[in-house]
Amino acid sequence: MYSRDAPGTTLRDDSELLEAHWSYMDTFAESMIARGPTLAGDRETATGSLHVLGLPGVDAARDFVAREPNNCAGVYADHVIWRFENLLGRTMWAFSGAADEPRFLIIARLDRNQTRSIHPIPHGYLRPDLRARLLIYGVLSTLEDALPVGVALAVHAPDRDAAAALLEDGRTGFAVFQDVEIHDWELGGRR
Known about the structure:
The chain is an alpha+beta fold. It is built from five helices and nine strands.
């Protein structure tokens, strides 16, 4: 699930709401693959949230969103819920690479008018420099009928331009995606 914050919201500053959010996430700790806020260019202001979980089905995914405290309080303007095929087979916490660089969430989707099918490059065939920087990588599919619509990945990179450059090599297969969002991102969880 990717949620965009409502414009001008200051609700994230509420310590009780923050604790309610973290406590809610704690109940999903066993199924959590990745989580964390997306950030504005100042890397301080939250703009949205990513939550990737292994849930038993569509109803469970909708229920997760409906009960999430930030959502109930009005922090988010909208949500996109996808299925996620975890091509790394690990969580973000299992990443063993360098942690001294900023992190970026990349959501690459087919344009609505595109009819190409998605054949994501298996992790082992990605360029070594991209592989070494991946925290998460997976296929995004529609919730209802599981039609592939894109990929999501989170990477470490010196800056946004370096994150974008990781996708530019034609061998990565990312050139087919017309809609690519790059968000400043950080690992979620209690601080």
